[in-house]
Give the backbone structure.
Amino acid sequence: MRRWVLVALSAVLGCDPIIGTNRGAEAARQGSPTPEQVARLVQDRGTGRDWRAELRMRLYDRQGRVRERTLTVSMLRGGTAGDKTLVRFLSPNDIKNTALLVWEHPDADDERFLYLPALGRVRRIGGAERQESFAGSDLSYEDIGGRDMADYTYAFADENATWVAPDGTRHPAWALESRARDRGAEFPRSVGLVLKDRFVLAHADIYNQRDERAKVFDVRRLERIDGIWTVLDLVVVNEQQKTRTELTTTSIRYNVGLTDEDFTRRALERPSTTLGAGPR
């Protein structure tokens, strides 16, 4: 699916109940969407025109030792030439102000730029680097930003699946399989649970080239904020490395008035400030 963790950070930060009269939404209301329509509804779910959030990231190694980081994530939907995302670390000091900027282009390859304050320069992330770990987490650079739907094929693994929430409540879902058209993709297949009433990706199993389950994505807390379904806690487990990354949204604001100027390479080098407000 286009984002398996944003499907990473955009999944963390909001899924609005679908609105409008497009064919996919109408088919979903009637209970008969195609796999491609479900994937499109997840991709196009509303999160407002823009948003900015503060998160806490916990990184667990295979011995169970934990490192904690704080970061901000800002996103502009439908900006000039496509969506834009800016991730910036606030703490600890050894990673403070390290930042990643993603420009998504509808008709061209996405661009990613990494700012390293210790070196005082911006460098482009491209090619095989996109598969590398982002800031030591279980996310890759490619997970931060978007993936083109046309790069994948879709099928239902189960049209009547169930997601069991951490509180024990049960929710109807589609089990949607996506397969990469690129035979060289590191993770060519995933199977995710998409909630039928919210179009939220609540769980995903990610498979490597040997078709072994390599990563697991799980939503731990989902609440409605300002009318938008928002994932406030999630975890990504790397089953082969025996590591995991936990993400908790501590502050979020929707429709804050961000513009393209907030997502330039110059803006990438500016330090960030905390939001100073809780998620509710």
Remarks:
- The CA atoms of residues 24 and 38 lie 7 Å apart.
